[in-house]
Design goal:
Largest sheet of chain A: 7 strands, parallel
Strand content of chain A: 5-15%
CATH class of the largest domain in chain A: Alpha Beta
Helix content of chain A: 25-40%
Protein name (chains A, B): glyoxylate reductase (NADP(+))
Number of domains of chain A: 2
Number of helices of chain A: 11
GO molecular function (chains A, B): glyoxylate reductase (NADPH) activity; hydroxypyruvate reductase [NAD(P)H] activity
Family (chains A, B): Belongs to the D-isomer specific 2-hydroxyacid dehydrogenase family.
CATH topology of the largest domain in chain A: Rossmann fold
Oligomer: homodimer
Radius of gyration of chain A: 21 Å
Number of strands of chain A: 12
CATH superfamily of the largest domain in chain A: NAD(P)-binding Rossmann-like Domain
Structural class of chain A: alpha/beta
Shape of chain A: elongated
Pfam families (chains A, B): 2-Hacid_dh, 2-Hacid_dh_C
Keywords (chains A, B): NAD, NADP, Oxidoreductase
Chain lengths: ~350, ~350
Amino acid sequence: MELQPLLVLGLPSIFPAFETLNSHKYIFLKAFSSKLPLLQFLATKNVAPSSIRAILCDPRQALTVDILGLLPAVGFVLTTTAGMDHIDLSECRRRGIQVVSIGSLAADDVADMAIGLLIDVLYKISANNRRVRKCVASKPLNFTMAPKLGGKRVGIIGLGSIGGEVGKRLEAFDCKVMYHSRNEKPFVPYHYYSNVVDLATNCDALVVCCPLTKQTRHILNREVMLALGKDGVIVNVGRGPLIDEKELVHCLVQGEIGGAGLDVFENEPRVPNELFALDNVVLSPHAGAHTKESCQVKCELVAASLEAFFATKPRISVQPVIEERHFYPSFECLPASSGEPAYA
Amino acid sequence: MELQPLLVLGLPSIFPAFETLNSHKYIFLKAFSSKLPLLQFLATKNVAPSSIRAILCDPRQALTVDILGLLPAVGFVLTTTAGMDHIDLSECRRRGIQVVSIGSLAADDVADMAIGLLIDVLYKISANNRRVRKCVASKPLNFTMAPKLGGKRVGIIGLGSIGGEVGKRLEAFDCKVMYHSRNEKPFVPYHYYSNVVDLATNCDALVVCCPLTKQTRHILNREVMLALGKDGVIVNVGRGPLIDEKELVHCLVQGEIGGAGLDVFENEPRVPNELFALDNVVLSPHAGAHTKESCQVKCELVAASLEAFFATKPRISVQPVIEERHFYPSFECLPASSGEPAYA
């Protein structure tokens, strides 16, 4: 069987495992490991740009119109993340390139992280953990009393696959769940706010898990933060630029909001070091969607998707069979009528 | 109205607030603030030991047979914790002293802490938080892939008010919940193991929340830990001596179990400093049951309980009205037929 060239941008979390399992099928063109411009990089590999039909990509390296312009034969783009903000979707649509995201497979993992961050911020688990480790053995382990999670009004921004999983978990903690999304969802029992400021005004905590688009960039701005108030907690498991980070830092430092649990940052890997001294902030290295089990399932789905694409050439229509009942694969194939992914 | 003397042992978390609200009703005899022997302390306050009819106590100071022997008129002992291991229940029973715990009021708070610790250990939230804070801004935020919480088999040791709340939450994370307690519970959907080793053998994680008694001391011994295995996680929100801490430290250091989230320790406030270097361990200063909201409700219940006791003199039979639907007050009054509290 002829090996197919597969361009890999960024370093998808599944990649090391995926490469090991599929080295007999693909020539992996690991652009993420080279500092050369793409054409030069391909030349060093003796690969003609026109031979590349599929790309596996990741938010750490944007798939821009310029890169796509160098690759005339690309028909298939695959990302393992729920967010697709690193892909120029308009250009893909214009060229009829199919874009597939399997990120919602890990929606439950991301939701677990959101709940973990929320509990951590409220109960100061990380901060107390640091304090205990510095404590003198004979000193009493004092702590400040935490606000209770039960009964808290928690607003979810973006009630897609991740937001839905967050809501389900919050219900078990007896939280009052409400949400904002582009449109009100039918059959959802939570109160809907069409306006984020109104949501924040009526909430004790906000969990941000919508996709990053032109419309949602800085959806959490200063006005929203002030509406949330000085006891309010923000958890972000979506994308960093969903929050105006400069204002977030200001609000946290000034005590204008109560705390934050952040798995993502506006200019990753940069984390604002003004936050390092704050005990009401939990900082996480964009780790939410990456569990061993999800990685394994993602590897299988990526393999199946690529195989289907290379076998048939026309547009992909893989319907993956997932045995774990908690995975909700949503193959969000473009071209579609809207410029945005469908899940927020 | 004549002020009643109220002996306060340990420093109940509600105490500062309770004292402020009730200084017009009680002479607070704060034995926890004195290093004098009890009789000498009472002499400095001009209080006759025989005038003390009620005690408010806390695990930080044991209510022993010796202390009870100095106080012939005591008829009522109140603790704000779920555990009653700091009270000599046998002696109270022998003397017909009523013992009331309102700790199960905060069962949901403790359960929140248990879930927070479990997610933190699995997803390494605290450890990553520490790493991010030490990180150089320009370096990528790497992390190791976590085991997934969804689908994990979690064993609850002690399915009382706290254990029940833990189970409810774990279900929302799609965990497979199983349990051990003294007896199998009717109407509980979780699989029951009469033997803790069998439970551990069939689990990925154990959450310990049973009361500390002679029978449950070191219920998690080396055999149980080895049965749980090298990927297994232990969370303890009950009492430190439920776990053989020396063996726990050994198993963690040697990698014979996967990790631990500990809100309690065998010899508080001492925390084994062998654990300080481990990233798979989260250490919490016995903070689980202490939220602002629960504190307020506890204050009201303690006030009502004491008022009822001092008004009627005979045994208390307060049925508190709790408006928050998530509180499950269980006034576990002794004397009862068994020497153990009824909730495990």
